[in-house]
Design goal:
Blueprint (H helix, E strand, L loop, with lengths): L51 E2 L9 E3 L5 E5 L3 E3 L3 E8 L2 E2 L4 E7 L2 E4 L1 E3 L10 E2 L2 E8 L2 H6 L8 E2 L6 E7 L7 E9 L1
Parallel strand pairs: 2-14, 4-14
Antiparallel strand pairs: 1-9, 3-5, 5-11, 6-10, 7-8, 7-13, 9-12, 13-14
Length: about 190
């Protein structure tokens, strides 16, 4: 498989961001289900040898569930059916981009992003003033996940989603750790 170069660069920003207000430390919503998932797939592998998973630009050691000193991430539910919409809200006052996230499934072999590219596309991101935060209305389908992603990159979900535990990791703030929420999807 060819090595892919993922460069940080200038791209358009998806129209999925919105002002939320300043983080108060009392944000409503959920962070993650209790306990470990019981139905984790063994692996999440795409049949195409040309498929390359989305980059993992965050440091797992600096990943925080729900809150860091500067930001707060919440999801409006802990369990969804395929096709439902999850609302994920970030409260922060930094610079970043609404496209800077990973959407991963928990497998017996660890967390794997469900998205990737099948060509030589470079995945790039720009920064913008967060000014309070972002809200993602994420339809929990293959198409919904792609439409919430950077629209200038031909990302795909491969293979199709399966029932399991998923997490949304926002890593797009300059100079801070990454923050995550997780939830279950029943397909």
């Amino acid at each position: 498989m060819k090595r892919r170069s993922f460069l940080l660069g200038s791209t358009g920003i998806a129209g999925l961001s919105g002002c939320l207000g300043i983080q108060s430390g009392n944000e409503s919503g959920n962070i993650r289900p209790e306990g470990n998932p019981t139905d984790a797939p063994n692996e999440f592998v795409c049949e195409s040898s040309e498929f390359n998973r989305h980059l993992k630009p965050y440091d797992s050691d600096n990943l925080r569930w729900g809150d860091t000193d500067e930001e707060s991430l919440r999801v409006d539910g802990l369990s969804f059916n395929y096709g439902e919409t999850a609302e994920i809200s970030l409260h922060a006052n930094e610079r970043g981009t609404s496209d800077s996230f990973n959407f991963e499934i928990y497998t017996e072999n660890g967390w794997r992003d469900v998205r990737g590219v099948v060509d030589d596309s470079k995945i790039g991101y720009t920064d913008e003033l967060v000014n309070g935060g972002f809200t993602w209305e994420l339809e929990l389908t293959e198409e919904g996940i792609i439409s919430a992603s950077n629209d200038t990159i031909p990302l795909e979900v491969c293979p199709d989603l399966v029932s399991g535990r998923y997490r949304f990791i926002f890593w797009g703030l300059i100079g801070d750790g990454s923050v995550a929420v997780s939830f279950d999807i029943d397909v």
